Amino acid sequence: MTLTGEADFAELFFDDVRVPADALLGPLNQGWQVATTTLSHERAGAARLYAGLQVQLDDLVADLAGIEVNGRPVRDDPVTLRRLGELAMRIKYLEVLCQRSISAMLHGGDAFSSASLAKTIWGELGQDLAALAFDVLGPYGANGRWADRRLASRSLTIAGGTTQINKNVTAQRVLGLPRQ
Question: Taking every annotated instance into account, which residue ranges of this chain make up the domain Acyl-CoA dehydrogenase/oxidase C-terminal (predicted)?
């Protein structure tokens, strides 16, 4: 059960299970390779998620239109504008990174590296966007869709591999650093 009351995650364990050889997902005793390949595709699938963040940013800008603090529109506040601009820039960067991952996958390259980096950025960006909405919408952000997004955003750096795991993958595969 998640913070928003939904059941998005599940674990299922099987003990003493025998699988016929023709039903294996990969070579015998190569389960980790199958799992990392699956994660790579899952992370590359996250490539479409930058579009969802752009929609959320557009929603936030629209929601800010009618909100005033001390008689001034919130969306005219220089700090809010800077934060919105930073998020827009990071979403664009994520889009380019995701396109790179998709291109690598289509051309037989290493999509895993850029997909791991994209997943890390996507999770942190989703949390930052939800936090900004919560900050600038005041009481309007404390309930409804923005409250749900804020709570749900906490899982973005866990699902599909934690931020720490994805940073290690990036360090090893992109930067060539030794495994820790």
Answer: 29-175
